[in-house]
């Protein structure tokens, strides 16, 4: 058996080591994956191979993962997809033109944080936005992590991005199609590693990257994800840091499990009243929490049971106070 790194999983596993090896799934792995689909080998996994006397190669086991990036389908189903494993840094990539989508950044950052990897935001196409530096500084406060403006075309701002790979780190790029992920990889490596599509008039690229592969970059590796048009989040985990302002305010809510919707003594709602917090920010937070929570409920019967009880108690106390219960499905 040999332990190797999985390079791509789209046409069957291929691995690093002495050249590329094509391998099928072994019997023991099939059993494990049947019981837990998340255990299927993915990009960045280290796997144990068996070389058979007849020349076949099979993946028999996946080594324990340090981090794992999982995406839930945004259609609200319980389907999940393991995007990559053993990633050290998740870079959320968003273009400065058209204007960066803050909701999408928050959503992808939550996914990044839930993976266990270090989050960072890369704002591309800085050459098209004269206010790039100011926007980055502003976003940094919102995101609670470094925000790096870069221009892949001019080669500006690349050093801090290159530094993410130091020590042989693996960096995963997460962002919508057209955000400039492939151009960034090419700028970092100084070579055409990824195919880049022509820019459309509206500043969006077309969907070009279809596989997730590990490419050597600056002493580490990059995984350029497929254009994630709609990334669902898996759980409410990972949101606290992205919405550090709300988390800080929520510490003063009367109830520890406050939903910041209709609860009495809610410090978050109070902050909207005083103008300290924008309603749109709370809205985006609550949508993401609700989405992640729905995914968790789908997976966990015990949690479902507790949630039904929690709502019953809340509704009762609201009725007693003469207030209407909140609309269904939003919180
Ligand atoms: N002006 C400018 N254009 C850029 C920059 N980076 C990327 N672009 C353009 O934006 C478009 C999309 O870039 P890609 O690198 O293909 O985007 P992507 O995120 O890899 O897209 P997918 O492969 O579909 O996921 C291309 O036309 C690039 O030339 C930049 O720094 N400045
Ligand atoms: Zn509250």
Structural features:
Ribosome_biogen_GTPase_RsgA; binds zinc ion; six-stranded mixed beta sheet; binds guanosine-5'-triphosphate; RNA-binding; G_CP_dom; Rossmann fold; ribosome biogenesis; alpha/beta; OB fold (Dihydrolipoamide Acetyltransferase, E2P); Ribonucleotide Reductase Protein R1, domain 1; 331 residues; 33% helix
Whole-number count of domains: 3
Mean pLDDT: 78
Low-confidence stretches: 7-18, 194-211, 226-230
Helical segment tally? 10
For the record, what is the CATH homologous superfamily label of the largest domain? P-loop containing nucleotide triphosphate hydrolases
What can be said about the biggest beta sheet? 6 strands, mixed
Bound molecules: guanosine-5'-triphosphate, zinc ion
How much of the polypeptide forms β-strand, as a percent range? 15-25%
The first-to-last residue Cα distance is 49 Å
**Helix content range:** 25-40%
For the record, what CATH class of the largest domain applies?
Answer: Alpha Beta
Instruction: Assign an overall shape.
Output: flat
Subcellular location: Cytoplasm
Subunit structure: Monomer. Associates with 30S ribosomal subunit, binds 16S rRNA.
Domain CP-type G: 75-231
Pfam families: RsgA_GTPase
Description:
InterPro entries: G_CP_dom (IPR030378), P-loop_NTPase (IPR027417), Ribosome_biogen_GTPase_RsgA (IPR004881), RsgA_GTPase_dom (IPR010914). GTP binds at residues 124-127, 175-183. Pfam families: RsgA_GTPase (PF03193). It is built from ten helices and 15 strands. 37% of the residues are buried. The protein has helices at 27-35, 102-115, 132-143, 158-163, 181-189, 239-242, 244-250, 267-273, 279-299, 301-320, and strands at 2-8, 14-15, 21-22, 24-25, 46-51, 57-62, 68-73, 80-85, 89-95, 118-124, 147-149, 170-174, 214-217, 220-224, 231-232. The protein folds into three domains: 2-62, Beta Barrel (OB fold (Dihydrolipoamide Acetyltransferase, E2P)); 68-232, P-loop containing nucleotide triphosphate hydrolases (Rossmann fold), CATH 3.40.50; 243-320, Ribonucleotide Reductase Protein R1, domain 1. The model is unreliable at 7-18, 194-211 and 226-230 (pLDDT under 50). The strands form three sheets. It has a six-stranded mixed β-sheet. Helix 2 (102-115) links the parallel strand 9 (89-95) and strand 10 (118-124). It is an alpha/beta fold and 331 residues long. The structure holds guanosine-5'-triphosphate and zinc ion.
